[in-house]
Structures are given as C-alpha cells and as structure tokens.
DNA sequence: GTCTGTGAAAACCTTCACAGCG
DNA sequence: CGCTGTGAAGGTTTTCACAGAC
C-alpha cells in the first residue's frame, strides 16, 4: 500500500502478488497459534477462518509459494510456519532502529510482537539531549547526533520513524544516507525517498477517518430504512463554507440521499 | 481491507470505491496543509504530489465526489477541504473510547491527530483497578466494569482496542453489546463481530514483516545483479525443518518458476 | 494553452468451481 | 470420499489518453 516506487516492473523476478505478501503475516500468526497448541495439520478452511479470510483466497495465496499441502488432508502446520517465515525473511535477524522516543516510540519499543518475529530493537534514538541515556524498554536512548554511527554499527536496514511530523523527512533522509533501505513511518507526512528504499506508513487517524465514513453511512441508512423520508435538503449541513470558485459551482449536493438526517 | 462484512452489496447507495475512501484522508491532510498556508487553489498534479499519489488517480477519486474542480485552473482548496470532510463524516463530532491503557493506549490518548479531525477521546478504560482514576492525557481512566455505562453515557460509536490479545475479543463483545458499531483493533487478534459492525485493524508487526519481505528481496537482487548467477538453489536457506507430511513432500524448492509463465 | 473529468484499456485481485491427487 | 491446487470468470483499481471546459 504505502511502498515506495520500486518493485521490479520488468525482470520478472519472483511474482508473489503484493496482496498475498500482505496476508502472509496473518497466516503466520494463525499458524503459530496452532503450532503452540501442537496441532499437526490444518485444512484451508480452518486456517482461513482463524486468519479471517476465505479459504479460496488462502489456497490461492499458498499456491504462489509452492505446493505445500496434501490433498485430502490439509497443510502441515510446522512446515508451513517455516516456509512462510522463510518467504517473509523472518528466518534472519532484523535489527531495527526507532527514531523519536515519545509515547508512541516507547510503546513500540515495548511491543512484544516485534521480538517474537525476527525483529530486534537495536537502537532508540531521540533528538532531546535530556533523554540520552534514559533507558526505555531496557535500552538506553541515544542522541540523534550519532544516528549515522548507530545505524552502521548495528547494521540496521529497517528504521521506524515516530517523530513529530516536522522532523520526519529530515530523519528519513539521515536514515537513508546511513544505509537504511526500509522505513516504517508513523508520522503523518509523505516521505520522499530515493529509488530502492521502501516506505510503509501507519496513520492512526486515517484509520479512524475511514471508520467514520462507514459509520456515517450506517446512520444514514438507518434513517432511510423506515421513514423513507430521505430528505435531501439536509445536504447543506450547517455552515456550508461555499468557498465557491470563479464561476458557478457544479454542486454535488442535489443527489446524495444517505448522509445526515440533519 | 479490514472492514467487517457489511457494506450494502445491493441498494446501490452511493458507490464511492473503498480504495478511494481510503485515500480521502490523505488528500484532506495535504489540503489542510495548503489551507494553512493560505494557498487558494491547487492543481491535481500539485495536490497529488503532496499526497503521494499520481494525478490521474486523484482526479478519478475526486470525480466520484462530484465535479469540484475548474478546468484550466484546478481545485479550490477550502471548498475541497469542506467537501471531503463532509464526505468522511468529519463535520460531526465522534466520541471515541480507548480500551486498554498500556503504552499504546496512552500514546493514542495523547495523539494530536485525533482531536484535530473530528475525533474526541471521550473515555479511557482499563481492566486494572489500580489505574482507575489515574489521569492519562488529562482524562481519568475508568474501570472496565463500567464499560457499558461509559459507552452509552457518552454516545460512543467508535471504540479503539489496545488491550493484550487475550482480552481483545471479550472487550470487543462488550463494546458491541454496549452499542459500538466501529472498532479499530490494535491487538493482534482476528475479531469476530456481528453484521453491521466494522472492524479495521492495525498490526504493527505485520507492517514490519512486509518490509522484511521486500528487504530480503533486495538483498537477493543485489547479489544477482552483477553475477547473473540467479541461483535458485538458494531456496534451501539454512536448516530446512523438513517437517514433511505423510508421504513425499512436493517441495517448493526444485521447481517453482514461481510466477506463472507456465 | 491549461488542466479537469472520464470513457476505455490494462493490471490486479478475488471468487468460483472443479479436476485430480491422496 | 475430502481437500488441495488452479484455470477461468468476475470484480475492482489503476493507468492511459484525450475531449472539452475555462
């Protein structure tokens, strides 16, 4: 979704669809849970339910990895765990650096889900000199001045940005200059990076906004459900900023049933 | 993406593609920044660059909302901000409850990006009695026992779950029972909810895993870049757990031109 | 001339449905 | 039989490219 423009258009490298890659961690999690319960095999139907997808999709996804199942039986849990881990590159250790140790950075440093996969928090970096030396999640915070050295000393290729938005691009540039080629960005900023560097973003407020959209839609439908009185004058909600451009607005209003029972 | 099965298949309500909805918050953010700099109008090209998408996509997206631009000129910034906000339902106030006030919950409670949109943190809820009363981000944490009352008293329809995975489904059930119809889930669990309830999830370790996949790929390409020796024996990376099922493994290794030229 | 709005084409992703292995 | 693996169909999203408004 957020990956920077890279990804071999030609070269016909290895062809696992991006959508499939994004689901592999999900399968892996479900499989790990089964593995812990010592379940030996699982059918596509069961595993799909545990992962929250449908079984045809799961089978197709797995078909890109190879033929790992046994017809009439299902998939060997341990074997699949290994194959998916390998495909995702989790059989190796990934040192990660977190830059920006505020609330969120600290939360991530403490997050158990990282260590349990191949990720190791190798360094915590912050611009506040007062924080330097303070241990967070058992790791001493280091100062931004040493960023370059910290990254190369630890062989970090994945960086996590949890700084305020204003600092994000600058931090990103420094990370990239120091050799980082994958960035997970929590700052609400569009980062620009050179080719070959991947960026993924997590924006907490975006998720909420998407929920709000659907929530609003539901409210509208509810109202429309019984009363039928889908007023359309409700369009002009309150103070319609009517910023209107030059000439006459094309206006969307008019139609638009659902929205707001005023 | 993560939304629970709902979404009017028939009814032909308003037809804004989900992919477009997911980008509206992005455009809104870019537009807000322009608005703050008092930029009056913007072209699809400029706005697309600021939002990190391409301009054809942006124009298509906007075309679902209506004809808000002016040919030869561009889009009126203020007007678009209003229209998108309205479309997303951000012209109203959304009281949100956060359940599970650990590191992450606290980080979210403090997160500025919520308040700046229509979201208001109406309640913080935690199962630990020792936390009850403690203020986090200026709001006193309340105990889970009162969850039902808190939700209805505040008219909360959006809940955020930041509990440990074991508690997530239970909390989810209680939220839904109390009237919540949209859930943002940070716990690494597949939640099951009744029809009509939307769930979106944010899984921090999944994002890292996707990055690791691409990172690994890069390392491989690099090696293959000069030597041409695109070994495919590299499949057997190190210790292949060979969990093998009943009979003979189909092995991915050997064959598997991966893609599908077949 | 500039820049939007949009049909049409292409790419991508999901779902169906069933052949075929165990 | 049961369950995987997969062509083929169907749907969605992206991209192209240009007609038409300003």
UniProtKB/TrEMBL annotation, chains A, B:
Domain CoA-binding positions: 89-190
Q: How does it assemble?
A: Homodimer.
Which GO terms are recorded in the biological process aspect for this UniProt protein?
A: negative regulation of DNA-templated transcription; response to redox state
Organism whose genome encodes this protein: Streptomyces sp. gb1(2016)
Q: Where in the cell is it found?
A: Cytoplasm
Q: Care to name a GO molecular-function term for this sequence?
A: DNA-binding transcription factor activity
- The principal localisation class reads cytoplasm
Its protein name is Redox-sensing transcriptional repressor Rex
